[in-house]
Amino acid sequence: MSNRSDANRTTDPIETRELKPNALALLPIVIFLAIYLGNGIYFEYIQPIEGRMGFYIMSVVVAFGIALIVAFMQNRRLSFDEKIHVCAQGIGDDNITTMLLIFLLAGAFSGIARATGGAVSVANMLLNVIPSRFAVSGLFIIACLISMAMGTSVGTITLLVPIATEVAQNGALSLPLCVGTVVGGAMFGDNLSVISDTTIAATRTQGIEMKDKFLTNIRIALPAALATLALLIVLSLGSKDAPIGHFDFNVWLALPYFAVLALALLGINVFVVLLIGVGLFLVVGLCLGQVGYADAFSAMGDGTAAMFETMIVTVLVASISALMKAHGGFEAILKFIRAHFNGRRGGMAGIALLTAFMDIATANNTVAIVIAAPIAKEISQEFGVSGKVTASLLDTCSCIAQGIIPYGAQLLIAAGLAGISSFSIMPWLFYPFLLSVFVVISIVRAGSRKD
After folding, report:
1. For residue range 134-183, what is the model confidence (pLDDT) as tens digits?
2. CA–CA dist 54, 47 (Å, integer)
3. Of 377, 374, 373, 375, which Cα lies nearest the Cα of 385?
4. Of the candidates 227, 265, 393, 426, which lies 20 to 30 Å from 208 by C-alpha distance?
5. What is the pLDDT of residue 87?
6. pLDDT digits (tens, 9 = 90+) for 121-141
7. Confidence label for 9 from pLDDT (cuts 50, 70 and 90)
8. Own/partner pairs for 60-63, CB < 8 Å, 24+ apart?
9. What is the distance between the alpha carbons of residues 180 and 294, in angstroms, rounded to a whole number?
């Protein structure tokens, strides 16, 4: 039976067809960007709806659904059944399946952690040890740690911006500076956290271990974070003391986050890390009376449900990408990059620019990675870029763009909580700007150097 299956795989007429560059095969992604970006701009800046973010009115699932229909309408050389087969192969990829399962576990973890109040305890514990003169730089460190533990920049911003607003008022500090500092720290952790959906998407689509991506990524992110911290300390030296006040916390509720962070850094399998994290929060929450038995499992269910849209988008994009590749779209992109970029450095630059463009267009770093990842993998194979470097560029460049664009969820939520405009925060986004500088430096230094 296995020999027959192997024979069938080697003679698959779809896989053995010679692919020719076909720029028209990229039409589905153009249609998606036109629908999603067009509606986002319209409802954000032309005809805004009170209380709603313009870029989140048009469902990303609906936009990708329309794009998938367009992909099915292309290439008459393939029958409908053959196109279904192509989609099934894309969805059934080992890395896509693993990514979907990790999304479920990450959702359960975030749900139980939120219900027990673990993130609040971590933030409050750290706030109590910050010297008042260095309140702003302290906010950056806290945002970095909280977002690494939580795996979400939006969650970190929602938690810390009200505190940053209070710090700014108490110390007569610049409110946009304090808010921008929190946003920068949130993007640092989102970029590096092993339970972040961006990290999961970047690593699984490239088929690499999270620890390998982390070690590659931190060479770029840590220098940028240290440069940001040094800049904030210099600014703090010329400011007055900013009394932060006292915040209540429970060290037991903070421990599961630190345990998850430590296990992840030790290179433990992400499934094991998340399961341990869920178990710890469940035990601690029940023992301390922070959450009841029924509420705990309900919270885990809510957390997994919150990941459903991301999972559906992953399935849709895997299908669209598989069809675009079968229709010659990836070959068209590779042809363009071959004509304008040379060597390993050029491949890295192409991946970085592609990812940043996708994020600017979609205003969602996870979606941007899922779209760019299969194309980036082709580029990496063509130009000799390792999987861990590709994953690092996907995650880092999407976080840079997402942390800067004024219409992204991060800046819009931060601005809304602080009562200021998202544009007023942009000049104070030191970390994303410095991170982009270090990405460029890493690409320039790469050359022919081996990983």
Report:
1. 778 888 988 898 888 777 788 788 778 877 887 777 667 788 999 999 99
2. 9
3. 377
4. 227
5. 92
6. 777 777 777 776 777 888 898
7. very low
8. 60/36, 60/309, 60/313, 60/362, 60/364, 60/367, 61/309, 61/312, 61/313, 61/316, 63/32, 63/35, 63/36
9. 38
